[in-house]
Amino acid sequence: MKKGKAVVILVFILACVGFFGWYGTTIITDTEKKQEATADGEDVSEKKFQNIKLGLDLSGGVSITYQIKDENPSKTDIKDTIAKLEERAGSYTTEYSVYQNGDDRITVEIPGVDDPNEILEDLGSPGSLYFISQYDSDGNANYTADSSVDGGYKLNYDIQKLIDNGSVVMDGNDVKSAEATYQQESQTSSQEPVVELKLKDDAIDKWGEVTTAAKEKGQSIGIYYDDHFISVPTVSAAITDGNCVINGMKNYDEATQLATFIRVGAINLELEEMESNVVGAQLGSAALTNAVKAAVIGLILIMVFMIVFYGILGVAASVALCIYSTLTVAFIYWFEITLTLPGIAGIILGIGMAVDANVIVFARIREEISAGKTVYAAINEGYKKALSAILDGQITTFLAALVLMILGSGTVKGFAYTLMISIILSMFTALVVAKYITRALYAVGFRKEKLYGKAKKRKPVKFIKNRVKYFIISAVIILAGIVGMAVHAANGSHALNYSLEFMGGTSTTADFGKEYTASEVESDIVPAVSDLLDDKSVQVTTVSGSSKVTLKTRTLSLDERQKLEDLLTSKFNVDDSTIEYQSISSTVSGEMRKNAVVAVIVACIFMLLYIWFRFKDIRFATSAILALVHDVLVVITAYALIRISVGSTFIACILTIVGYSVNDTIVIFDRIRENLHGIKKTTPQDLADIADESLTQTLSRSINTSLTTFIMVLLLYILGVASIKEFALPLMVGLLCGAYSSIFIATEIWYVMKLHLGKGKIVKKAEKKAE
After folding, report:
1. pLDDT tens-digit profile of 231-282?
2. Which residue, 76, 282, 330, 440, shows the most beta carbons closer than 10 Å to its own?
3. DSSP string of 284-339?
4. Cα–Cα–Cα angle for 485, 487, 492, nearest 5°?
5. Residue 151 — left, alpha, or beta (φ > 0 → left; ψ -120 to 50 → alpha)?
């Protein structure tokens, strides 16, 4: 690279750092300003903010409580209604909360919305879809034009009568799928939003007959949804392929919403709005600010560490890391991804992977310099040799994130979105940005070998020799967790300390006589209630424009309710007549839990298949997955023994460990594969030597990557509020465990399997050779 070109590249990259730094800072600042203004009760509807959409835990949103009008609704009907409300809420955001409130109420909480009226009518509407012929069998018109009603047409008869006399030719139960799309309008050639329907097989012939008859008579078929007509098209052709289009949508958002509601189907129970409020952040307004502080301090410490440890290469990595961080913020804003604590976990994991990619490259460059190559040749060769390890690790984690996005719901889906963005940007900044910065720095005069460093030849550590000890240590830890869970279960408590998100709990609403600010809630109410109930996962939400405060806790006994009531009346001067208690169901529904488990299992299968395909040996893949299972079990042990609250962030924590552990292990396996290339030796000792050498060669990389990621989470723990601490603590355990298993478990399992299992096992070969 010529010096002039190098200067242009450096100036351009520094300009990008400046621009994206300013832009990312603006987004973060606006997000915090809007959150603070909302928390203080200000009207932000007229103010323009470049802000990230935040979840209920960080920002708050709207809370809508519906009264079930049906008498004695069954548990099944309530469960089905909650599931359908969850799907409808999912059309607004990936982060939402739907739960049963008392015996006959359902509460829906959606973040990022300041006006309940935006979603109130759509969310709880019955959602029944009917296709109605223009005339009944006696020639009477079923509907007539009327510009004064919504949809421009009115029904002439009750819908049930139309069903009974056969005028309803098809309903929503006959629809197989519904998708929003654009279609060219025949008269103006413009693109109009429509909903495309695919019918179920048993409805195709019926629809063909109905549309054929309507075409011959020049009649229309009205499409009736939620008490009004949404489209009344005249049938111009018989539809015999099972495809149908609903037009007349105002915009694409309306088409998307209608498609979602059609897929979900009609709500079983009749719901009536009881109350709707704008509520404050569940974790308090300080949660986001402290998380941002932790991220900034962590990034600075990581950059200092990289520069001290890797010299000029660390400078290149630091600039690339700045671009990565600001681009991540920008992408989350551009794609309108709702950010919650699990999303922050995805970003932290992405930072760790971004650092890891650079560390892998730098270690390779130093090895090439140590082998006698010039600095420039070492740079090119280092990036070339590091490529496979980086791609394999990142693609494996990306596959997992993709599966989680497709199969997961709620928190899982939000985590997957941020993780996928982080992976793509970390690869771009490490393999493109950092590469060009390094080459440009060399071209402008940073050419001395000492600026880049040289890999020291280290004596291989005998990891494989002590494998049984490592297995015993892990077995003891996991067994301790199993025993701990069994003991707690035997004593009448749950095996794990499930929070209200998993088990449900008690919602206590009281009028405090004055409107509390978010900071007052965090400093006064939360600590007092947490100490009284010995419950760190207490959620306290304020209601905008009201002096009412809602406290969500684990299920309280009558004695605990009395103690809480005494605290509220004596410490906060609450009128006891305003205190109301309601039992609430879990906010993480059984469906969401099932989706999370299925998504993780399928993700592990895809990771196993990819590793098997890339390494041409299922023993590599199996070892990586077993190490992953080991890490998950150790983290669950930490939850069991320390009694960390198991809430919605538990899922995100486990997902983070899954992504981190596999990526860490694959880097080591890639080096083993490289060192095995072309070697025909088959003795157990030769295999052990190769494994030990590979582990030793990647040891500094494993330690450095784990250390930098750990720093980010540690700062989140130190600066975070109570709920964030409960999230960061098991995450730290998982990061340490992931580093441990990659070095002391995964490779050792692979070695044992290579000796005793599969085609070409070493022990069998060695025995035959001895004979």
Report:
1. 888 887 888 888 888 777 778 877 877 777 677 666 767 777 777 766 666 6
2. 282
3. -THHHHHHHHHHHHHHHHHHHHHHHHHTHHHHHHHHHHHHHHHHHHHHHHHTTPPB
4. 100
5. left
Tokens of 147: 């510009």
**Would you state the structure tokens that stand for residue 695, as one six-digit string?**
């582990």
Domains along the sequence of the chain with CATH: 61-118 (3.30.70.3400), 129-266 (3.30.1360.200), 286-479+590-768 (no CATH), 505-584 (3.30.70.3400)
| Residues contacting residue 620 through CB under 8 Å, at least 6 positions apart | 611, 612, 669, 673, 750
Outline where 151-244 has alpha helix (H).
159-164, 201-217
9 beta partners = none
DSSP string, 152-163: SEEESS-HHHHH
Cβ–Cβ under 8 Å, residues 404 and 416? yes
pLDDT given for residue 35 in this prediction: 65
Ranges of residues in the chain with a pLDDT under 70 are 1, 32, 34-49, 56-60, 91, 94, 112-118, 120-122, 124-127, 186-189, 226, 261, 264-266, 268, 277-287, 342, 409-411, 517-519, 587-592, 648, 680-682, 721-723, 758-771
Instruction: Give the integer Cα–Cα distance in Å for 648 and 57.
Output: 11
State phi, psi for 213 to the nearest 5 degrees. -65, -40
Alpha-carbon distance 345 to 728, whole Å?
9
Q: Which two tokens stand for residue 758?
A: 């599969």
